[in-house]
Every structure is written in C-alpha cells, then in structure tokens.
Amino acid sequence: MLLFVRNAEANSPRVVDLKTPDGTILKASYFAAAKPGPGVLLFHQSNRTRKSWEDIARQLVAVGINALTVDTDPNKTRKQRWPGDLDAAFEFLTSQSGVKRDVIGIGGAGVIGVEDSVETARRHPAEVKSLVLLSGETESLDFLRQAAQLPELFVVADDDEYPPIVEAMELLYVTASSPSRKFVHYSAAHEAPWLWYDPSISVEFQPTGDTEPTCSKSIPNCPASSWIGL
Q1: Which residues are within 8 A (CB) of 146 and not within 5 positions of it... i.e. 6 or more apart?
Q2: Among candidates 210, 134, 129, which has minimal Cα distance to 172?
Q3: Helices 84-95, 110-123: inter-axial angle, 10-degree rounding
Q4: What integer pLDDT is reported at residue 163 of this predicted model?
Q5: Is 138 helix (H, G, I), strand (E, B) or coil?
Q6: Which of 27-41, 61-75, 204-218 has the least mean pLDDT?
Q7: Could you read off the pLDDT of 12-38 as tens digits, one per residue?
Q8: Who contacts 8 (Cβ-Cβ below 8 Å, separation ≥6)?
Q9: pLDDT on residue 8
C-alpha cells in the first residue's frame, strides 16, 4: 500500500491519500492524540464525507484516542470495496506509531458505513475491541450473533432521512449477543433525550440534528469520550 501524505498545519489532522490494491485513492484524515493510545476508524454514510466525523474525531483525540476518518466511494459495490478499501484504511491506522494496534474501535454511519464497519471488525477480531453503528443496516447478522466478546453501541433516530431504519437497527441490536451491547434511540419528540436501552443504565444526551451523537456532559459511558471502553 502506497501512502502520499500532504503537509498539514500544526494541530490539524494529517490529510493522507491511501492507495488500495485496485489503484483507488482513498482520501483520509488522521487525528493524532498527544500520546500513544487506542485508535478508532470511522466510516461515513453514503451522502456524507469523512468531514462529517471531524467533531467526534477531535473529541476522541482530546481524551487520548487516535482517529482516522476515510472517504468512501458510494458508487462502489461491496464486492468492489471489500476487502481492499477496508484493509487500506485499517492498515494505515494500525501502522501509526502512536496507535496501540491491538486496541481499535470501529464506527460507521448509514448503510455503507455500517456494512464497512461490521466487515472490518469481522476481518480483524483480535485487534477490534469495540463497534459503534449509527442509522444503518447490514446482512452480516451471523457476525453480530457470534461476536459475544465485542462491546457494541447501536444508535438511531426517529427522524432519520432513510426510514424505516429504526426497525433495521433494532434488528441488529436484538441479533447481537454481546452482553455489553447498548441501544440508543433518539425520539422525534423534542423533549426526549438520547436514552441508553440498558436495564442498568439510563443516560441522557443533549438532542442534536446530526447523525453522530454529541454528549451534553462528560459521563463515563459517553460514546464521544470513552468509545465503549477503549
């Protein structure tokens, strides 16, 4: 894999070009934490770009988690993206000197982002320690059913632009077997907060119109600050 790294200003993400085995150039941004720590790979939904993850990436870096956001070509089928595009991004992240390569989180939004996240986790079970899926779906239900050791967060909103995604996300949640999995449902009611669907936890989040959740305050299990235990 060839990497072409552009110069970036101090304290800005490092913009990189990742070349996949079929010659595709993937645009990516690497957000480096101040000291060695876990890494998170973020896949966007089909009508977004990697820039939609920038706020979350900066929050992760602030708590010592390195992050890589990568642009996905929505015109490519799964067969065309897999495994080359996924492995190029994963290998870049885990090759960085400040990343603990055996403590990796994967996050994805929308159908493409969720599919790519689940497939990446399936391909790298020893390194991936958490999985965050937002407003998408996947046919890889067998993996979710079998990955009992993997902490997982499922997030969806009633006003998602691609209904009926709530039902699709509920299916992923009930299929998953991890005892540490959690489901966050953003209700269309204006007064309703983000809620953890977990018998032992009920945590409120500040409502937001973005796909990615933003925490209203610092709390132990906030996805933006602890990324499911990384």
Answers
A1: 177
A2: 134
A3: 70
A4: 80
A5: coil
A6: 204-218
A7: 899 999 999 999 999 999 999 999 999
A8: 14, 15
A9: 41
pTM (two decimals): 0.83
Q: Is 52 left (phi over 0), alpha (psi -120 to 50) or beta?
A: alpha
> What mean pLDDT is reported for the chain?
82
On the CB side of 152, CA atoms within 13 Å amount to 28
First to last CA, the chain: 27
| Amino acid making up residue 202 | S
Distances (CA, A) of 64 to 31, 70, 109: 10, 20, 22
Q: How far is residue 55's CA from residue 215's CA, in Å, rounded to a whole number? A: 11
* Distance between CA atoms of residues 190 and 184, nearest Å: 16
- Alpha carbon 95 to its chain centroid, in Å, reads 19
Q: What is the SS3 string spanning 94-137?
A: HHCCCEEEEEEEEEEEHHHHHHHHHHHHHHCCCCEEEEEEECCC
